[in-house]
Amino acid sequence: MPEIKKIVLTGGPCAGKTTALVKITEYFSGFGYKVFNVPEVPTIYSTAGWNYLTPNRDLYYQGERAILETQLSLEDSFLHLAEVCTKPVLIVCDRGTMDISAYIKPEEWQEITAMAGTNPNELLERYDAVLHLVSAADGAEQYYTTATNATRYEQANEEGLRIARELDKKVIKAWTGHPHLRVINNHDDFENKLNRVLKEISKVVGLPQPVQEERVYLVEIVGEIPECSESEITQTYLVAEPGCEVRLRRRVFSGGKVVNVHRSKKRISETEDIETERRIDNNLYEQMLQQADPYRSTIKKKRQSFIWKGQFFEIDTFLSPVNNLVMMETKGIAQQETVNFPPFVKVLEDVTGNPRYLNYNIALTR
To answer: In the chain, how long is the greatest CA-to-CA distance?
Structure first.
């Protein structure tokens, strides 16, 4: 059986998914992958006559149930096709099953998943990675349009932009808990957004990537962070061969969901490295803790993740082995771009590239 990876491409309205899908197919076909694109199921139903805005609640409910069942069936059908291919396969889903939960009441979502013989945890585990492209309505309003999607009801006016931003955040919340959820910022140059998509998928399939530093700042939180996702992280580094960094991360989200991830990162040259991640169950997590590096302490920290003006940020408040450190990291902002610092954060120092503030080295603190 060939190597098969399944990716979800999601996001709020007018995020650039259609263009990204074309780019993904061209790029990875060039590396010898067979690329399957699973079409956007809600659009199939909308263009066929079903409508999100119907006042008939029963029709709405049955529509969402049908969308879920069709999504599952389509994905499984493409998986069967992938299993008989002779090349490695990349299955790219234009939205995935968890997107549906952003459009339906929680109790209804619980009902329709049960009727489909599944649950949210099983749905998350269907995918190797989830890439969320931020809506142009948040930070790139000048590019927001409804012209590319005739069924879009979030119009290009102030109210439509507000609805689109809210929906964008609901979709991120729906996928929160997936170990390889990556939020793809808006950029001054849309090409940068597409390149970040290709980079994240390359990580999933194991292609070497250019060494790139995320921007990191020492900060002080001076106000309330709006609509952030909160989690508690326990990070343990394992004994590894020289030049290789291996860690275990247990992340507990508000609501009690626990996600364990094993990550390995190896530098293969001065300019390239290979990074792999996999989700592991609680039993394997406990077993692998026996391989903990005795020279590095376990890191405990609180993480707050949010979007501000189209850019994604993570703020880590360290609890141990240090307890007076708060760092903010930006995700996927191009070198030449300006960081949209939020007003509720006071930047104390730019520590990008400073080895002292790498988690791997912070763990040496005792």
So the answer is: 63
